[in-house]
Amino acid sequence: MATDPLADQAALQGREAWEQEAERERAHGVGPWRLALRRLRRNKVALAFGLLFVLLVACCVAAPLWADRVAHTGPNENHLSDTIRVGGETKNVVGLDGIPIGPTWRGEFFLGADSNGRDIMVRLLYGGRNSLLVGISAALITTILSIVLGLIAGYSHGASDAAVSSLLDILWSFPVVILGVALGVALALDGVDIGPFSVSEDSLLIPIFVIAIAYVPYMARPLRGQVLSLREREFVEAARAQGAGPLRIMFTEVLPSLTSTILVFSTLLIANAVLLEAALSFLGAGIRPPNPSWGTMIDDGVDRISTAPHLAIVPGAMLVLTVLSLNVLGDGVRDALDPRANVRLEH
Amino acid sequence: MTQHRSGPEQARPLANVETTQAEAGGASTDGSAPLVEVEHLKVFFPIKSGLFFDREVARVHAVNDVTLSIAEGETMGLVGESGCGKTTISRAIMRLVDSTEGAIRFRGQDVTHAGRRRMEPLRREMQMVFQDPFASLNPRKRVGQIIGLPLRLHGSERKEIEPQVRELLARVGLHKEHVNRFPHEFSGGQRQRIGVARALALEPRLIVLDEPVSALDVSVQAQIINLLDDLQDDFKLTYLFVAHDLSVVRHVSDRIAVMYLGKLMEVSPAEELYTKPIHPYTSALLSAIPIPDPEENRRRERMVVSGEPPNPINPPSGCVFHTRCPRATDVCRTVEPPLARYPNGHLAACHHPMNVSPEEVKATEKDRTSPLSAGDELPAASGANGSGLGDGH
Questions:
Q1: Are B138 and A4 in contact (CB < 8 Å)?
Q2: CATH label of the domain that carries residue A233
Q3: Domain containing B15: what range?
Q4: Does the beta-carbon distance from B223 to A257 stay under 8 Å?
Q5: Is B209 within 8 Å of B129 (Cβ atoms)?
Q6: Assuming Cys at both sites, which of A169, A224, B235, B392 could form a disulfide with A150, CB separation 3.0 to 4.6 Å?
Q7: B65: Cβ contacts below 8 Å, ≥ 6 apart
Q8: Looking at the 3D structure of chain A, how many domains does it have?
Q9: Do the domain assignments include residue A50?
Q10: Cβ separation A3–B137 shorter than 8 A
Q11: What is the pLDDT of residue B191?
Q12: How far is A20 from chain B (nearest CA, A)?
């Protein structure tokens, strides 16, 4: 052989040093994912907020435990005429003037009661379950739809791109909340009943679907843009030159380059979906009362904001914590994956 | 599929030149049939605009009637400035861009408009090495997956692939253990070796090299060129070597084609192009090669061409080079010069050839590979008024 196989490096470094270095990482190359993980591990703030989010989810998942073992009541059980003993004195859960009890800091009515005499802590945990379930499922559906639509629109020129893009533009032209309220009210009026597929009007599927649809353009459009630039890259052309078909190229050549964007987006999407769920529920177009969710709880609480401020503040604080932790985590993930990326959910 | 050669698609362009069909048919029956034939190929890119519906408002004449053939085992160098269409030709041969007119044949099979399914068996025989070793390897994939992709696409078992990839890595001068690494862990030269290994995986007959070394350092360029040279001997490869730099193709090519603004200016045996450039444009390209010795540099006669190439949306009439050519006369502005045949299979499309004797000019004929739009004016005819022959020494 005429060429020295290692001349490229050997010229720069001593051959020996290079060989040692090579030996260490030769067996398994250090991939982009591992590099990202290393960077994320150094970002303590993002990790702390990530942990906080996991903790919030764990608490909400454990809601029945608190309800059965500690509070001994369910999320929809009224205690309008009940009394409890706090600090040696007997108190009405809901006073004669209609003002509910404040935080007792004990098992029962830990955070007080609402105007129907329901345990706020229990409702908070069950409400969190609903809010997070809606948020996470909606974000998941949005992500999947956006990937498919973004790939189709971005990779195929012509009619399918025009169709998908204009559909996304139309959706995008509506403010998220207005679109959500309109869809939510329309669907919730008497449920959905299409052939074998029927959804009752108080099903969680309705807010999930509404929120997922409302956010699709915000993720699919940037993804399409990224696919548009990726499809012109030489490695895509190389795959075509080897005879790879469009589906294989979309999913095995283009998609891996999108994963960092997708990951960051979906983290931010969960936060936004939880927020939108709260907004819709607050406006009465999301989760139906008496089912608890952070949005409906705030809605219940605003009427009594002057006499019992904890009714609105407690679920509001949960919302802030969830959204904050997801945003900080999302920023950390973005910095770790691609420090130059400019991925934002812009309304 | 071989029956396709008499298909209607390529019968039409051939009908214009009566002798061509007989010649091409005769050549393909004996063993020396060209591996790749490009006939009167035109590739135009539409420029679209419009508020609601895209209307074609103009066309970029990227490749404008080029006829070329590459024999089995040969290295054809293709040079020209950026934007002259050399890369577009290589992509059209690989069926990465659609041809507007003309025919491309691989082993006599018409592939001008072949779809993906019809190209599939041919992909085994033609592969490509790309210009930018940083962009042509998927950053998210391991080297093993990158080199293994052509093998997987063409039906190798998963188990068989890894040993083959290791073998290929060793063959292009990398470590066998590099299979699990990612592209970002390699230098430019090493990445281009990966690109070569990928092109080699299916043991093709033809490898299209699209400026394979222009993104590399000079010292690394030599290594890659030597590697390509070795591989050609070992695997009996045919190369189409695209470059914008005449000094790079000199050592590897058997023949060199010079392009300008979508047209062929000169086709020549490799060495002769450097000692006896006929077309003024070739001469200008040669003058642009830096010579390290300042003494020699001062002594040589340089032909300097100023300005930028004209816009390929609206190429000049007559000879496309006349706007920048110091030897241009009236005939150049009106009549497109045909490719005239000189000794040794040397072709040049110029009304005022350089470095040729009056006898050689007199003996020229219009070659059948000339563009269809070219006139019949051979240099000898214009030589009668003195301007062409005066420089022929």
A1: no
A2: 1.10.3720.10
A3: 2-258
A4: no
A5: yes
A6: A224
A7: B40, B41, B42, B102, B262, B263, B371, B372, B373
A8: 1
A9: yes
A10: no
A11: 94
A12: 14
